[in-house]
User: What shape does this take?
Amino acid sequence: MNIRETMEQWERDNLSPYASLSSETLGRDREEPQCDIRPAYQRDRDRIIHSKAFRRLKHKTQVFLAPEGDHYRTRLTHTLEVSQIARTIARALRLNENLTEAIALGHDLGHTPFGHAGEYILNKICEDGFAHYKQSVRVVEVVEKKGEGLNLTKEVRDGILNHGTAGHPSTLEGQIVRFSDKIAYINHDIDDAIRGKIITESDIPKEFSDVLGNTVKTRLDIMIHDIILYSQEKPEIVMSPKVEAAMRGLRGWMFENVYKNHAAKAEESKAQQLIVRLYQYYMEHTDQLPEEYLFMMKERQEKKARVVCDYIAGMSDSYAIDQFEELFVPKAWKG
Assistant: This one.
């Protein structure tokens, strides 16, 4: 018995009966030899971390465009915080931690530059529309490795696709990530909004703070404990009605007071116009796309608009700005 088989046996002996076992994965689209050390979901987790799309997350906006300060979240730090929360819950419930972590690390790989402002404008201008959760799956199935994708298991891709509010993950590990994403961005966006002097802790309505607490640390602790307590020995991941209602209410309050706040969104229209110009340019000059994107159009017969959308969605904030300056700003005006 090799190391992978020993680990798979450990899962069968120790994980919850509701856990997704590595040895029972629905598999990959392309069959390949199994690793002698790593179970399938651990292998997926490693592939995501080594991907180019994952590295680019460090220069993609979470909420604040080009914030002044080192401590504001980026899309990468958000992803790591989601992973940490999800792993804590999965371990406590004896679910598959490798699967949970793989989904968490991959859930935002398809996010655009400039956060949801970028997603919004790409959805308007791309002929087939755009949604980051669908793009995240497209990244791991098609865009990475010059059109080959990462060949991840079906369970990981299902969790990535269904991590949003309207999603219905088929595994409990995917359900954990769906909750963990909300827990992370609500609390950490509050932290960033307080740091940016958009809100104060005392601005949060009492109806939510009475249930969830008055600090980021307390809210995280209450929400995580609540999920663990109410999901034990159940075939689904749930919160208590009281805590879930407060979390949903706080999320709604955040949309009105932070995500739509002028201070957080003041530069969004400029960022969106930048994306529009880049999209128009590359639609007219596809020959200037990187080689791997030309390959997708030629060898995979992908539509031009889809591939241009792939290229722009994959850009970091800084790279998109650099490309815009290179294409549209006279060199004599720079600096």
Observations:
- The chain is about 60% helix and 0% strand.
- Residues 172-195 form the longest helix (24 residues).
